[in-house]
C-alpha cells in the first residue's frame, strides 16, 4: 500500500515510539506478502542456513558490526553501527522470519544511533545501512526507520566538502572527512553508488539535498563517460578540478557498482530519467567492445580489465573493434638469459678456474637482456662451482608456453633446440641430473612469462554484470536485447564455472582466463587471490538470469554452489566463515570472518533463485548493490520532482561550491 508519503513531512520531528508491538504490516514496497517465506525444500534449506548464521551473530555479537565466527568474537568494521542487523532486516522479512525481524527492528528503534564519533566509508554506509534502513521502512512502514535514515543521510552529506564529488570517509559526529589512501582519493564505485538511495531518501522526506548531491556527481561523470566510450578509470581525486589518480578500468573492485547504478538510477526513477538509460547503453556498448573475450580451450565468455584508460578510451569510440581477442598480437619478450651455478659432480671437479671467469661475465649477459633467471643447483658441492648460461631468443607468449611445457615434462632434447646453452669449455655435456634442475628452474621462470600473457583477470565482483544485463533486458533498457541476453547467459555460465569447476566448488576472489592454445585449463585462481568470502555476485546473476529465461539450470547451479558453502564454510560452532585458499590440496583453512553480505545478499539471492514465484516485482522494486529492495519512485516522487529539479538547476547556476 502506498502509505509512506502520508508522513513525509513529519520525519524531521523525532517520532515517539508508540508502535513497538506492531503486527506485520507492509509499507509501500509492493512485496507480494503471500510469497514471503519458504515455498519449497531448497528454500527451507536456505532459511536454515540463514538462521545458523543469524543465531550465531545474535548470540555473540548482537548490536555489533560483524561476527568473527571461529573465535565467536565481534568486529566494528563499519564504525559500530550494528551493520549486520540492519543489513539483514529485509532478508529476515523476505525469508518469513518475522519474529526475528521485529526483534531486530526493535534494536534499531531503541539502540541504533548514527551520532557516533567514528569515521565511516560513505559508500559502505549508504549501501548497507542507509539502504538497509530504507528497504526495511518500505517493508514494515515503521516510520522511525525513516527518521534514522534521514539523520544518517544528513551526517553523510558532510562528505561533500568541496565540489560535486564526495570524500571517501566522513566522521559521523564532527563531519571531518578523510581518505584511506589520500594520494588516490575516492573510487568510481564509491562516488557512483549512492544515487539510488539518496534519491529515494529525498523522495520520502521532501528534502531535495540528497538527490542533488547524487545527481551532481553523475552530471560531472556522465559526459566524461560518453566522451570516452562508456568506461571510466577507478580512482579520482574529488578536490576540484577532479582528476583521475589510477587509470585502471575494471568491472571488478572499485569500478563495479558504478556501472550497475547507471541502470538502477533509471529504474528507480520509474524509467523516466532518460540520461541514465543512455549512459547505461553507452557503457554496455563499451564493455562489449573492449572487455569481452572467450577462453581457451572451452570458449567460456569473460570480461577482462585494462591497466590504462587512454589505451582503450579512444579506440572504443572508433568504428573498429578495439579488442579482437582472436587476433591478439603476440607481444614478444626481449629475450631471456639465465645463468646457473653448478655443483655437478660429473663436471665440477674439473672446473676450478673456469668457474670464476664465468661468474664475472654472467653479470653482463644479464644486464644486456634486462631479464633473467638465476639458478643454483643445490647439490652438495664436489669441488668448486661451475657456471653456465642459457640464452633464449625473444619469445612470444606462445613460444614461452611451449618451451615451458617441454621443460616441465623433461623433454630436454626438444627443449634444448629452442635455447642456446653456453658451457665453459671444454665441457659440452650436462648430466641428466643438471638437466632436470634446469628444467625445473627455467620451466618455473617461463611459467611466469607464459602465464602473464594471454591471461585475463576477472574479479568475482564482476559477476554482477550479467545480472545487470539481464535486468536491462527485462526492463527495456537494453539497446540490443537479444545479443545482451546471450552475453548475460554466457557470462553467467562462466561465473557459475568459477564455483563449479574449482576443486571444492568454491570460487576464488578472482581468476585468470586463458587465451593461449597451449594451456589445457580455461581458468585458474589468481595467485594471492585464492580466498573466498562467499560473495553474492554469481548467485545474484543466476537469479536475474532465471527470471529472464526461466531456465532451471540456473537454479541447479545455485543449488550446487549452496551445497559447497554448506560443506566447507559452515561451522558447527555457529556461523559461516570465509575460506583462506580454495585451491588448497589439504584441508581448507577458515578465515575468522563472516561478511554481512552473506545475509543481505548471498543467502537472499539463493532464496529468491529457488522460488518458483517471486515476492518482489521488478517493475516496482530495485535491489540496491547490497541486495536491499528499494521501491521504484511512484506518485509521491512526481509531486516533489519539480522541486528536486529546481534545486539541481539552481545549484548549477550558483556554481558547484555554492551548493555545498
Ligand atoms: C539495547 O541495548 C541495551 C544495552 O546497551 C540492551 O540491554 C537492550 O536489550 C538493547 N535493546 C534491544 C531492543 O536490543
Ligand atoms: C572455440 O572457438 C574456436 C574458434 O572461435 C573453435 O575453433 C573451437 O572449436 C571452439 N572450441 C569449442 C570447445 O567449442
Ligand atoms: C590481425 O591484426 C592485424 C594488424 O592489426 C591485421 O593486419 C590482420 O588482418 C588481423 N587478422 C585478423 C585475422 O583479423
Ligand atoms: C673431467 O676431466 C677428466 C680428465 O681430466 C675427463 O676424463 C672427464 O671426462 C671430465 N669430466 C667431464 C664431465 O667432462
Ligand atoms: C513489467 O512490465 C512489463 C511491461 O513494461 C511487462 O511486460 C511485464 O510483464 C511486467 N512484469 C511483471 C512482473 O509484472
Ligand atoms: C511507473 O510508470 C508506469 C508507466 O508510466 C505506471 O503505470 C506505474 O504506476 C508507475 N509506477 C509507480 C510506482 O508509480
Automatic annotation (TrEMBL):
Residues 1-22 form the signal peptide. Residues 357-371 have a biased composition (Low complexity). Pfam families: Glyco_hydro_47 (PF01532). It catalyses: N(4)-(alpha-D-Man-(1->2)-alpha-D-Man-(1->2)-alpha-D-Man-(1->3)-[alpha-D-Man-(1->3)-[alpha-D-Man-(1->2)-alpha-D-Man-(1->6)]-alpha-D-Man-(1->6)]-beta-D-Man-(1->4)-beta-D-GlcNAc-(1->4)-beta-D-GlcNAc)-L-asparaginyl-[protein] (N-glucan mannose isomer 8A1,2,3B1,3) + 3 H2O = N(4)-(alpha-D-Man-(1->3)-[alpha-D-Man-(1->3)-[alpha-D-Man-(1->6)]-alpha-D-Man-(1->6)]-beta-D-Man-(1->4)-beta-D-GlcNAc-(1->4)-beta-D-GlcNAc)-L-asparaginyl-[protein] (N-glucan mannose isomer 5A1,2) + 3 beta-D-mannose; N(4)-(alpha-D-Man-(1->2)-alpha-D-Man-(1->2)-alpha-D-Man-(1->3)-[alpha-D-Man-(1->2)-alpha-D-Man-(1->3)-[alpha-D-Man-(1->2)-alpha-D-Man-(1->6)]-alpha-D-Man-(1->6)]-beta-D-Man-(1->4)-beta-D-GlcNAc-(1->4)-beta-D-GlcNAc)-L-asparaginyl-[protein] (N-glucan mannose isomer 9A1,2,3B1,2,3) + 4 H2O = N(4)-(alpha-D-Man-(1->3)-[alpha-D-Man-(1->3)-[alpha-D-Man-(1->6)]-alpha-D-Man-(1->6)]-beta-D-Man-(1->4)-beta-D-GlcNAc-(1->4)-beta-D-GlcNAc)-L-asparaginyl-[protein] (N-glucan mannose isomer 5A1,2) + 4 beta-D-mannose. GO terms for biological process: carbohydrate metabolic process. Ca(2+) binds at residue 625. The active site is at 124 (proton donor), 256, 509 (proton donor), 537. Belongs to the glycosyl hydrolase 47 family. This is alpha-1,2-Mannosidase.
Amino acid at each position: 500500500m502506498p502509505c509512506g508519503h502520508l508522513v513525509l513531512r513529519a520525519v524531521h520531528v523525532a517520532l515517539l515510539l508508540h508502535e513497538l508491538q506492531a503486527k506485520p504490516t507492509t509499507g509501500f514496497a509492493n512485496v507480494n506478502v503471500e510469497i514471503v517465506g519458504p515455498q519449497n525444500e531448497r528454500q527451507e534449506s536456505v532459511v536454515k542456513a540463514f538462521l545458523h548464521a543469524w543465531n550465531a551473530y545474535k548470540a555473540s555479537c548482537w548490536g555489533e558490526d560483524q561476527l568473527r565466527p571461529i573465535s565467536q568474537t565481534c568486529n566494528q568494521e563499519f564504525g559500530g553501527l550494528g551493520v549486520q542487523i540492519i543489513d539483514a532486516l529485509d532478508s529476515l522479512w523476505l525469508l518469513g522470519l518475522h519474529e526475528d525481524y521485529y526483534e531486530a527492528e526493535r534494536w534499531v528503534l531503541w539502540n541504533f544511533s548514527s551520532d557516533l564519533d567514528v569515521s565511516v566509508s560513505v559508500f559502505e554506509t549508504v549501501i548497507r545501512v542507509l539502504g538497509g534502513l530504507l528497504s526495511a521502512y518500505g517493508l514494515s512502514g515503521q516510520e522511525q526507520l525513516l527518521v534514522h535514515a534521514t539523520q544518517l543521510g544528513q551526517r553523510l552529506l558532510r562528505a561533500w566538502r568541496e565540489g560535486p564529488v564526495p570524500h571517501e570517509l566522513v566522521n559521523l559526529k564532527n563531519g571531518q572527512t578523510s581518505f584511506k589512501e589520500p594520494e588516490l582519493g575516492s573510487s568510481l564505485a564509491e562516488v557512483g553508488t549512492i544515487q539510488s538511495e539518496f534519491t529515494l531518501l529525498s523522495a520520502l522526506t521532501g528534502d531535495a539535498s540528497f538527490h542533488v548531491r547524487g545527481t551532481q556527481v553523475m552530471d560531472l561523470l556522465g559526459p566524461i563517460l560518453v566522451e570516452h566510450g562508456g568506461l571510466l578509470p577507478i580512482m579520482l581525486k574529488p578536490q576540484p578540478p577532479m582528476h583521475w589518480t589510477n587509470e585502471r578500468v575494471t568491472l571488478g573492485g572499485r569500478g563495479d557498482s558504478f556501472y550497475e547504478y547507471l541502470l538502477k538510477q533509471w529504474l528507480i526513477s520509474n524509467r523516466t530519467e532518460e540520461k541514465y538509460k543512455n549512459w547505461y547503453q553507452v557503457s554496455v556498448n563499451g564493455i562489449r567492445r573492449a572487455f569481452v573475450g572467450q577462453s581457451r580451450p572451452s570458449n567460456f565468455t569473460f570480461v577482462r580489465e585494462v591497466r590504462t584508460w587512454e589505451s582503450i578510451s579512444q579506440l572504443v569510440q572508433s568504428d573498429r573493434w578495439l579488442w579482437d581477442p582472436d587476433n591478439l598480437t603476440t607481444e614478444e619478450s626481449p629475450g631471456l638469459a639465465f645463468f646457473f651455478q653448478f655443483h655437478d659432480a660429473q663436471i665440477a671437479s674439473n672446473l676450478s678456474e673456469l668457474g670464476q671467469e664465468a661468474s664475472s661475465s654472467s653479470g653482463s649477459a644479464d644486464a644486456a637482456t634486462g631479464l633473467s633467471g638465476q639458478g643454483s643447483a643445490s647439490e652438495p658441492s664436489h669441488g668448486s662451482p661451475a657456471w653456465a648460461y642459457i640464452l633464449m631468443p625473444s619469445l612470444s607468449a606462445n613460444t614461452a608456453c611451449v618451451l615451458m611445457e617441454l621443460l616441465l615434462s623433461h623433454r630436454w632434447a626438444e627443449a634444448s633446440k629452442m635455447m642456446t646453452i653456453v658451457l665453459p669449455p671444454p665441457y659440452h655435456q650436462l648430466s641428466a641430473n643438471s638437466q632436470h634442475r634446469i628444467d625445473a628452474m627455467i620451466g618455473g621462470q617461463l611459467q611466469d612469462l607464459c602465464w602473464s600473457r594471454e591471461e585475463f583477470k576477472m574479479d568475482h565482483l564482476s559477476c554482477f554484470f550479467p545480472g545487470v544485463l539481464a535486468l536491462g533486458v527485462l526492463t527495456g533498457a537494453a539497446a540490443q536485447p537479444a545479443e545482451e541476453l546471450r552475453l548475460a547467459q554466457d557470462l553467467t555460465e562462466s561465473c557459475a564455472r568459477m564455483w563449479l569447476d574449482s576443486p571444492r566448488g568454491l570460487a576464488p576472489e578472482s581468476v585468470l582466463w586463458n587465451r593461449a592454445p597451449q594451456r589445457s585449463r580455461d581458468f585458474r585462481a589468481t595467485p594471492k587471490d585464492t580466498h573466498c568470502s562467499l560473495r553474492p555476485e554469481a548467485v545474484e546473476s543466476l537469479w536475474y538470469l532465471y527470471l529472464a529465461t526461466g531456465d532451471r539450470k540456473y537454479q541447479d547451479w545455485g543449488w550446487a554452489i549452496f551445497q559447497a558453502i554448506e560443506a566447507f564454510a559452515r561451522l558447527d560452532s555457529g556461523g559461516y566463515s570465509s575460506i583462506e585458499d580454495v585451491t588448497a590440496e589439504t584441508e581448507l583453512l577458515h578465515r575468522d570472518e563472516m561478511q554481512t553480505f552473506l545475509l543481505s545478499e548471498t543467502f537472499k539471492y539463493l532464496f529468491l533463485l529457488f522460488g518458483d514465484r517471486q515476492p518482489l516485482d521488478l517493475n516496482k522494486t530495485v535491489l540496491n548493490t547490497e541486495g536491499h529492495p528499494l521501491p521504484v519512485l511512484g506518485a509521491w516522487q512526481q509531486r516533489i520532482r519539480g522541486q528536486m529539479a529546481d534545486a539541481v538547476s539552481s545549484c548549477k547556476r550558483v556554481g558547484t561550491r555554492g551548493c555545498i
